[in-house]
Specification:
This protein is mainly alpha-helical. It has 19 helices and no strands.
Length: 427
């Protein structure tokens, strides 16, 4: 049985049925077409100018949201292939996983969440679903309404990292870089996007994520835990040979692993340091040092994905690893090691004083931009959002349109729009 045979007609169904392509067009399977649609989406191109951890304009080396997404996609595809699940679905979910992120990354998400309480909140993953099924127009229904990229049910399900609404979300834990408690709750669908969410989750009970979504989520964790550390090393912000364990463990617990004790974290760090390519000397900017970091990156990704692959195969007992027929198994030791690496980046990069000050200015810019657009109404919106504003039936719906507009901007275009709309009024 081929991998395609493990996915039924319901998995390949689209919200709006599409006629066959021309007979002279290249033959592509349904999930290959999904991947192409995400690759060619305007929202994908905009990721190149959106912050990952450090702003994309600060250095030629650091990752932006697009390069991060490409790396997540590579990890997801390789892991999916090794597990026997569909690599196109997992890769497409990985390519799409950050499409809903606003300018300034999680910091912009934090600002918009506070500004949209009265219209259903804001969450990057819920915004991704909204974009894929509404805002990124490729197909319209019989009434002329956009259904977004019109992806298959299996692919949309794989893109749903948090399959629940805001009212069903659990409270946030941990702190932001400035030490304040986190305020953004994790959810995957806004109330007015419920119809398409219910369609894509047809036949699925509760919060269970499909295997392909679990692969995407792990690939994201693996990629940014490793690559954020790599970026921090090259930027001169951290040195893996000189880690302050007390400060590191405090950060790991406050950000990621609240229940981990020192002994558990010590074992995890010692396991990472035992990797043959772990640096024994400080980074000096030479090609030799760059090569050493790349080898470490490769070894860590292989270490994490290898442990998950083995644990998942052992638990599956030979059953097909597709959709809702199996779950990804991440050993606790691997979870802790990933958490330690995330803590390294959080302590030395995200909590740095200069970055905390910049983040405060970014949140202020987003708040001022939302207010300026709210006051201007349709006159301040891009053409694609004007119809949404005109069709909105109340202030909450109009507020959502403003949030959609701001979320669509890149870092640079948010700054430019702010300069055009806010600074002249302030002067």
């Amino acid at each position: 049985m081929s991998i395609e045979d493990l996915y039924d007609d319901a998995a390949r169904e689209r919200l709006v049925a599409e006629p066959p392509k021309r007979v002279d067009a290249p033959v592509r399977l349904a999930f290959e077409r999904d991947r192409a649609r995400v690759v060619h989406a305007a929202a994908s191109r905009r990721l190149a100018a959106k912050t990952q951890v450090v702003g994309p304009q600060t250095d030629d080396f650091v990752r932006n949201r697009l390069t991060h997404s490409l790396e997540v996609a590579q990890v997801a595809r390789d892991l999916a292939r090794a597990l026997g699940t569909h690599p196109d679905i997992a890769e497409t979910a990985a390519l799409a996983h950050d499409l809903g992120h606003p300018p300034f990354g999680h910091n912009g998400e934090r600002a918009l969440a506070g500004l949209s309480v009265d219209c259903g909140g804001f969450e990057g993953n819920a915004q991704t679903l909204r974009l894929l099924t509404r805002l990124e127009a490729k197909t319209v229904d019989a009434d002329g309404r956009s259904v977004g990229l019109n992806l298959t049910r299996a692919t949309l399900d794989a893109c749903t990292k948090y399959p629940w609404g805001r009212s069903e979300a659990t409270g946030p834990h941990g702190v932001h870089a400035d030490g304040t408690p986190r305020v953004v709750v994790k959810f995957g669908v806004y109330d007015d996007d419920r119809p398409v969410f219910d369609w894509l989750r047809a036949g699925v009970e509760g919060r269970r994520r499909c295997l392909e979504a679990q692969v995407m989520d792990l690939a994201d964790d693996v990629a940014y835990s490793v690559h954020d550390v790599e970026d921090g090393i090259v930027a001169g912000r951290l040195d893996l040979t000189r880690l302050d364990r007390d400060a590191l463990w405090a950060t790991v617990r406050s950000w990621y692993l609240p229940g981990a004790d020192d002994a558990t974290l010590d074992v995890a760090l010692e396991g990472l340091q035992a990797v043959g390519s772990w640096p024994r000397s400080s980074y000096d900017g030479s090609r030799r040092s760059l090569a050493a970091i790349k080898n470490l990156t490769s070894d860590l990704i292989g270490r994490f994905c290898g442990s998950v692959q083995q644990a998942t195969f052992a638990a599956a007992g030979g059953d097909p690893l597709v959709r809702h027929r199996a779950d990804l198994v991440v050993p606790e030791s691997t979870q802790v090691e990933i958490g330690v690496l995330k803590g390294v980046a959080a302590l030395y990069v995200m909590q740095a004083d200069d970055r905390v000050a910049l983040m405060e200015r970014q949140r202020q810019l987003v708040a001022e931009l939302v207010e300026a657009l709210w006051q201007r109404g349709a006159d301040g919106l891009d053409r694609v959002f004007v119809d949404d504003w005109d069709a909105a039936g109340d202030d909450a719906a109009r507020r959502r349109v403003v949030v959609d507009q701001v979320a669509s901007l890149t870092d640079a275009s948010a700054v430019a729009r702010h300069a055009a709309l806010v600074l002249p009024a302030a002067g």
